[in-house]
């Protein structure tokens, strides 16, 4: 996919996303809470990130280490950078100093590697949970989550778990994946208390272009938005027109 829309159009679409998020927060009684909008940059060639800069996007997430490096050479100072793609252990070293949050941590060995590669001040991570238990998806099962938290705790503050991330199955009706988001929140709520001496597990990274409103209703603190900012047929408004 190449990006043909302008910075102004992206700005307008981001405003629609923001409005829809605010409404979803109200509907779910979370109007005091904040949700961060992360823009997925995998659709953009490095120079096309200027459109996102013009649009006023602040937080971006990249999927591939090589692309992250290339894009940061051009726009490193302009955005807050997260990593959202599958992270191979051998890439941990180049990624960890470049981002403020890795959303996609899914193995004990990766956590150990991040512990070795993290700067003195440590690094923040989310644990990716394969809630829907899809074979094609990365992420650990609910049963494996605590073992990863224990591994992170053993890094002596180098790796700080901040919460959880999930990718819901792609469906036509986002209501079909509401239970996935609700499940991740339940997992977070259960572990948050027992782990509070070690980690502040408050973050829930869930929701993409097709399902972010439902994800916010179910407790998302970060949504990851890609396609709807650049598709040529315009922003996805709510079907009821609200
Ligand atoms: C591409 C991507 C997104 C954005 O998905 P869209 O459906 O394009 O909004 C979110 N999260 C991850 C991990 C991605 O790779």
Rg calculated over all Cα atoms = 17 Å
What is the level 1 CATH name? Alpha Beta
| Mean pLDDT, all residues | 94
| Sheet with most strands | 8 strands, parallel
Give unreliable regions as ranges.
238-242
Q: Count the DSSP helices.
A: 8
| Largest sheet, spatial ordering of strands | 7-6-5-4-3-2-1-8
Let me know the CATH homologous superfamily.
Alanine racemase
Q: What is the total tally of β strands?
A: 8
Order of helices and strands: HEHEHEHEHEHEHEHE
* Share of helix, binned: 25-40%
**CATH fold description:** TIM Barrel
- Described by the principal axes of the CA atoms, the overall outline is globular
The tally of structural domains comes to: 1
Q: Which structural category do the helix and sheet elements fall into?
A: alpha/beta
Termini separation: 29 Å
Q: Which molecules are bound besides the chains?
A: pyridoxal-5'-phosphate
In CATH, the architecture is Alpha-Beta Barrel
Beta strand %: 15-25%
């Amino acid at each position: 996919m190449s990006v043909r829309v302008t910075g102004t159009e992206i700005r307008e679409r981001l405003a629609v996303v923001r409005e829809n998020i605010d409404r979803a927060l109200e509907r779910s009684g979370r109007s005091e809470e904040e949700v961060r909008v992360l823009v997925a940059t995998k659709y953009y060639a490095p120079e096309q990130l200027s459109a996102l800069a013009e649009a006023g996007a602040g937080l971006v997430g990249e999927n591939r280490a090589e692309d992250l490096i290339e894009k940061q050479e051009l726009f490193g100072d302009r955005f807050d950078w997260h990593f959202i793609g599958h992270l191979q252990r051998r890439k941990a070293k180049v990624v960890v100093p470049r981002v403020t949050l890795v959303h996609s941590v899914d193995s004990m060995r990766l956590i150990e590697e991040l512990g070795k590669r993290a700067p003195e001040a440590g690094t923040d991570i989310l644990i990716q949970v394969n809630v829907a238990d899809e074979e094609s998806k990365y992420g650990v099962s609910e049963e494996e989550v605590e073992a990863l938290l224990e591994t992170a705790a053993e890094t002596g503050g180098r790796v700080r778990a901040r919460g959880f991330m999930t990718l819901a199955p792609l469906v036509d009706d986002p209501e079909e994946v509401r239970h996935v988001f609700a499940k991740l929140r339940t997992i977070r709520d259960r572990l948050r208390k027992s782990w509070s001496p070690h980690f502040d597990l408050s973050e829930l990274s869930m929701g993409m272009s097709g399902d972010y409103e439902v994800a916010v209703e179910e407790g998302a603190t970060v949504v990851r938005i890609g396609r709807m900012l650049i598709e040529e047929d315009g922003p996805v408004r709510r079907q009821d027109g609200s």
